[in-house]
Amino acid sequence: QKEVEQNSGPLSVPEGAIASLNCTYSDRGSQSFFWYRQYSGKSPELIMFIYSNGDKEDGRFTAQLNKASQYVSLLIRDSQPSDSATYLCALEAGRRALTFGSGTRLQVQP
Amino acid sequence: EPEVTQTPSHQVTQMGQEVILRCVPISNHLYFYWYRQILGQKVEFLVSFYNNEISEKSEIFDDQFSVERPDGSNFTLKIRSTKLEDSAMYFCASSADSYGYTFGSGTRLTVV
Protein backbone atom coordinates (compact mmCIF):
# COMPACT_ATOMS: atom_id res chain seq x y z
CA GLN A 1 0.00 0.00 0.00
CA LYS A 2 1.35 3.39 -0.93
CA GLU A 3 1.67 5.76 2.00
CA VAL A 4 2.73 9.37 1.94
CA GLU A 5 3.50 10.99 5.27
CA GLN A 6 3.64 14.69 5.99
CA ASN A 7 3.74 16.67 9.19
CA SER A 8 0.37 18.40 9.40
CA GLY A 9 1.87 21.56 10.90
CA PRO A 10 1.19 24.38 11.06
CA LEU A 11 4.69 25.38 10.05
CA SER A 12 5.09 29.03 10.86
CA VAL A 13 7.87 31.11 9.27
CA PRO A 14 8.45 34.85 9.11
CA GLU A 15 8.12 36.67 5.83
CA GLY A 16 11.34 36.44 3.80
CA ALA A 17 12.51 33.23 5.45
CA ILE A 18 12.98 29.80 3.90
CA ALA A 19 10.16 27.35 4.48
CA SER A 20 11.11 23.68 4.41
CA LEU A 21 8.39 21.11 3.85
CA ASN A 22 9.08 17.41 4.09
CA CYS A 23 7.46 14.23 2.89
CA THR A 24 8.33 10.54 3.25
CA TYR A 25 6.87 7.68 1.31
CA SER A 26 6.71 3.92 1.66
CA ASP A 27 6.50 2.60 -1.92
CA ARG A 28 9.99 2.12 -3.38
CA GLY A 29 8.39 1.69 -6.81
CA SER A 30 7.27 5.32 -6.83
CA GLN A 31 8.63 7.10 -9.85
CA SER A 32 7.36 10.67 -9.89
CA PHE A 33 6.73 13.08 -7.08
CA PHE A 34 4.65 16.19 -7.02
CA TRP A 35 4.12 19.18 -4.80
CA TYR A 36 0.74 20.85 -4.87
CA ARG A 37 -0.47 23.95 -3.08
CA GLN A 38 -4.03 24.06 -1.84
CA TYR A 39 -5.69 27.15 -0.48
CA SER A 40 -8.63 26.57 1.83
CA GLY A 41 -11.71 25.51 -0.13
CA LYS A 42 -9.84 25.47 -3.42
CA SER A 43 -8.44 22.80 -5.69
CA PRO A 44 -4.82 21.60 -5.65
CA GLU A 45 -2.48 23.61 -7.82
CA LEU A 46 0.71 22.01 -9.16
CA ILE A 47 3.91 23.71 -8.02
CA MET A 48 6.57 21.26 -9.14
CA PHE A 49 7.28 17.68 -10.01
CA ILE A 50 10.52 15.74 -9.66
CA TYR A 51 11.52 12.25 -10.72
CA SER A 52 15.32 12.19 -10.49
CA ASN A 53 17.43 12.17 -7.35
CA GLY A 54 18.78 15.58 -6.45
CA ASP A 55 17.47 19.09 -6.59
CA LYS A 56 15.17 20.82 -9.03
CA GLU A 57 14.70 24.56 -8.89
CA ASP A 58 11.89 26.72 -10.26
CA GLY A 59 11.92 30.32 -9.18
CA ARG A 60 11.59 30.51 -5.39
CA PHE A 61 10.85 26.78 -5.15
CA THR A 62 13.31 23.90 -4.91
CA ALA A 63 12.23 20.28 -4.79
CA GLN A 64 14.65 17.70 -3.43
CA LEU A 65 14.37 13.95 -3.93
CA ASN A 66 16.29 11.18 -2.21
CA LYS A 67 14.98 7.83 -3.36
CA ALA A 68 17.33 5.84 -1.13
CA SER A 69 15.87 7.55 1.94
CA GLN A 70 12.38 7.72 0.40
CA TYR A 71 12.25 11.41 1.11
CA VAL A 72 11.00 14.42 -0.83
CA SER A 73 11.17 18.01 0.28
CA LEU A 74 10.11 21.43 -0.93
CA LEU A 75 11.99 24.59 -0.06
CA ILE A 76 10.33 27.95 -0.50
CA ARG A 77 12.76 30.85 -0.47
CA ASP A 78 11.78 34.41 0.42
CA SER A 79 8.43 33.20 1.79
CA GLN A 80 5.52 35.57 1.30
CA PRO A 81 2.20 35.78 3.17
CA SER A 82 0.54 34.68 -0.08
CA ASP A 83 2.43 31.38 0.26
CA SER A 84 0.30 30.57 3.30
CA ALA A 85 -1.58 27.44 2.26
CA THR A 86 -1.55 23.67 2.67
CA TYR A 87 1.20 21.94 0.70
CA LEU A 88 0.41 18.48 -0.56
CA CYS A 89 3.01 15.92 -1.45
CA ALA A 90 1.88 13.32 -3.99
CA LEU A 91 3.46 10.39 -5.75
CA GLU A 92 2.74 8.39 -8.84
CA ALA A 93 3.87 4.79 -9.07
CA GLY A 94 3.69 4.29 -12.80
CA ARG A 95 -0.07 4.05 -13.13
CA ARG A 96 -0.94 7.76 -13.32
CA ALA A 97 -3.09 7.74 -10.19
CA LEU A 98 -1.71 10.09 -7.56
CA THR A 99 -1.45 9.19 -3.89
CA PHE A 100 -1.56 12.30 -1.74
CA GLY A 101 -0.28 13.02 1.73
CA SER A 102 -2.49 14.81 4.18
CA GLY A 103 -0.59 18.05 3.66
CA THR A 104 1.42 20.51 5.73
CA ARG A 105 -0.18 23.82 6.58
CA LEU A 106 2.25 26.70 6.10
CA GLN A 107 1.73 30.07 7.75
CA VAL A 108 3.95 32.95 6.67
CA GLN A 109 3.88 35.71 9.24
CA PRO A 110 4.15 39.30 7.88
CA GLU B 1 -4.48 29.68 -19.56
CA PRO B 2 -6.51 26.53 -20.28
CA GLU B 3 -8.56 25.25 -17.39
CA VAL B 4 -10.69 22.32 -16.33
CA THR B 5 -14.28 23.40 -15.80
CA GLN B 6 -16.58 21.68 -13.31
CA THR B 7 -20.30 22.13 -12.80
CA PRO B 8 -22.12 22.62 -10.57
CA SER B 9 -19.88 24.22 -7.96
CA HIS B 10 -22.18 23.00 -5.18
CA GLN B 11 -24.81 20.28 -5.25
CA VAL B 12 -27.12 19.30 -2.43
CA THR B 13 -28.93 16.01 -2.78
CA GLN B 14 -31.03 13.71 -0.68
CA MET B 15 -29.66 10.38 0.42
CA GLY B 16 -30.49 7.67 -2.13
CA GLN B 17 -30.71 10.08 -5.05
CA GLU B 18 -28.55 9.90 -8.16
CA VAL B 19 -26.16 12.73 -8.93
CA ILE B 20 -24.11 13.53 -11.98
CA LEU B 21 -21.05 15.72 -11.67
CA ARG B 22 -19.82 17.30 -14.86
CA CYS B 23 -16.39 18.26 -16.09
CA VAL B 24 -14.94 19.74 -19.24
CA PRO B 25 -11.25 18.76 -19.40
CA ILE B 26 -8.62 20.74 -21.23
CA SER B 27 -9.18 20.14 -24.92
CA ASN B 28 -5.89 18.53 -25.93
CA HIS B 29 -5.57 16.36 -22.82
CA LEU B 30 -6.00 12.63 -23.17
CA TYR B 31 -6.16 11.44 -19.56
CA PHE B 32 -9.03 12.25 -17.23
CA TYR B 33 -9.47 11.66 -13.53
CA TRP B 34 -11.81 12.04 -10.62
CA TYR B 35 -10.58 12.62 -7.10
CA ARG B 36 -12.46 13.44 -3.94
CA GLN B 37 -11.60 15.17 -0.70
CA ILE B 38 -13.74 14.71 2.37
CA LEU B 39 -13.59 17.82 4.55
CA GLY B 40 -10.34 17.89 6.49
CA GLN B 41 -8.99 14.74 4.88
CA LYS B 42 -6.64 13.73 2.10
CA VAL B 43 -7.29 14.06 -1.60
CA GLU B 44 -8.19 10.53 -2.72
CA PHE B 45 -8.00 9.00 -6.17
CA LEU B 46 -11.23 7.57 -7.55
CA VAL B 47 -10.74 6.71 -11.21
CA SER B 48 -8.67 7.42 -14.31
CA PHE B 49 -9.97 7.30 -17.86
CA TYR B 50 -8.13 7.04 -21.13
CA ASN B 51 -9.14 6.16 -24.67
CA ASN B 52 -12.79 5.91 -23.68
CA GLU B 53 -12.30 3.40 -20.93
CA ILE B 54 -11.38 3.20 -17.27
CA SER B 55 -7.64 2.61 -16.92
CA GLU B 56 -7.51 2.40 -13.13
CA LYS B 57 -9.90 2.72 -10.22
CA SER B 58 -9.58 2.73 -6.45
CA GLU B 59 -11.43 0.71 -3.84
CA ILE B 60 -13.67 3.72 -3.28
CA PHE B 61 -14.94 3.52 -6.87
CA ASP B 62 -17.47 0.73 -6.33
CA ASP B 63 -20.59 -0.21 -8.29
CA GLN B 64 -22.32 2.96 -7.15
CA PHE B 65 -19.95 5.04 -9.23
CA SER B 66 -19.60 5.29 -12.98
CA VAL B 67 -17.86 7.60 -15.42
CA GLU B 68 -18.67 8.52 -18.96
CA ARG B 69 -17.38 10.68 -21.74
CA PRO B 70 -20.67 11.21 -23.57
CA ASP B 71 -19.22 13.48 -26.25
CA GLY B 72 -15.89 14.96 -27.24
CA SER B 73 -15.74 17.48 -24.44
CA ASN B 74 -17.58 16.37 -21.31
CA PHE B 75 -16.49 13.88 -18.66
CA THR B 76 -19.02 12.90 -16.02
CA LEU B 77 -19.08 11.12 -12.69
CA LYS B 78 -22.34 9.50 -11.67
CA ILE B 79 -23.18 8.33 -8.18
CA ARG B 80 -26.23 6.09 -8.41
CA SER B 81 -27.57 6.13 -4.88
CA THR B 82 -25.86 8.69 -2.71
CA LYS B 83 -24.94 8.04 0.90
CA LEU B 84 -24.15 10.54 3.63
CA GLU B 85 -20.49 9.53 3.44
CA ASP B 86 -20.34 10.58 -0.21
CA SER B 87 -20.39 14.19 0.96
CA ALA B 88 -17.09 15.61 -0.21
CA MET B 89 -15.41 17.91 -2.67
CA TYR B 90 -15.07 16.14 -6.01
CA PHE B 91 -12.25 17.23 -8.27
CA CYS B 92 -11.94 16.45 -11.94
CA ALA B 93 -8.47 16.58 -13.46
CA SER B 94 -6.91 16.09 -16.84
CA SER B 95 -3.40 15.65 -18.15
CA ALA B 96 -1.56 15.37 -21.43
CA ASP B 97 1.19 13.25 -19.87
CA SER B 98 2.44 12.08 -16.51
CA TYR B 99 3.90 15.34 -15.40
CA GLY B 100 1.13 17.79 -14.99
CA TYR B 101 -2.36 17.27 -13.80
CA THR B 102 -4.63 20.26 -13.96
CA PHE B 103 -7.44 20.13 -11.43
CA GLY B 104 -10.81 21.76 -11.84
CA SER B 105 -12.21 24.01 -9.14
CA GLY B 106 -14.32 21.18 -7.75
CA THR B 107 -17.94 20.34 -6.97
CA ARG B 108 -18.94 20.35 -3.34
CA LEU B 109 -21.44 17.53 -2.90
CA THR B 110 -23.59 17.60 0.20
CA VAL B 111 -25.80 14.58 0.87
CA VAL B 112 -28.58 15.20 3.39
List keywords for this structure.
heterodimer, A: 110 residues, mainly beta, B: 112 residues, seven-stranded mixed beta sheet, 11 strands
Short account of what is shown:
The complex is a heterodimer of chains A (110) and B (112). Chain A is mainly beta. Chain A has no helices and eleven strands.
- The arrangement of helices and strands of chain B along the chain is EEEEEEEEEEE
Terminal CA distance of chain B reads 36 Å
Helix content of chain B: under 10%
Strand proportion of chain B, as a percent range, falls in over 45%
Element pattern of chain A in H and E: EEEEEEEEEEE
- The geometry of chain A reads as globular
Helix/strand-derived class of chain A?
A: mainly beta
Low confidence ranges of chain B: none
- Average pLDDT of chain A, rounded to a whole number, is 94
Pick out the low-confidence regions of chain A: none
Number of strands of chain B: 11
Find the structural class of chain B using helix and strand composition: mainly beta
Mean pLDDT of chain B: 94
Largest protein interface, residues of each chain: A-B, 22 and 23 residues
Report helical residue fraction of chain A. Answer: under 10%
Tally of separate helices of chain B: 0
Structure description:
The complex is a heterodimer of chains A (110) and B (112). With 110 residues, chain A is mainly beta. Chain A has strands spanning 4-5, 11-14, 19-25, 32-38, 45-50, 54-58, 61-66, 71-76, 85-92, 98-100, 104-109. In chain A, the strands form 2 sheets. In chain A, strands 2, 4, 5, 9, 10 and 11 form a 6-stranded mixed sheet that branches. The model of chain A has no long low-confidence stretch (mean pLDDT 94). With 112 residues, chain B is an all-beta fold. Chain B is built from no helices and 11 strands. Chain B has strands spanning 5-7, 10-13, 19-24, 31-37, 43-50, 53-57, 65-68, 75-79, 88-95, 102-103, 107-111. In chain B, the strands form 2 sheets. In chain B, strands 2, 4, 5, 6, 9, 10 and 11 form a 7-stranded mixed sheet that branches. In chain B, strands 1-3-8-7 form a 4-stranded antiparallel sheet, with no helix packed on it. The radius of gyration of chain B is 13 Å and the shape is globular.
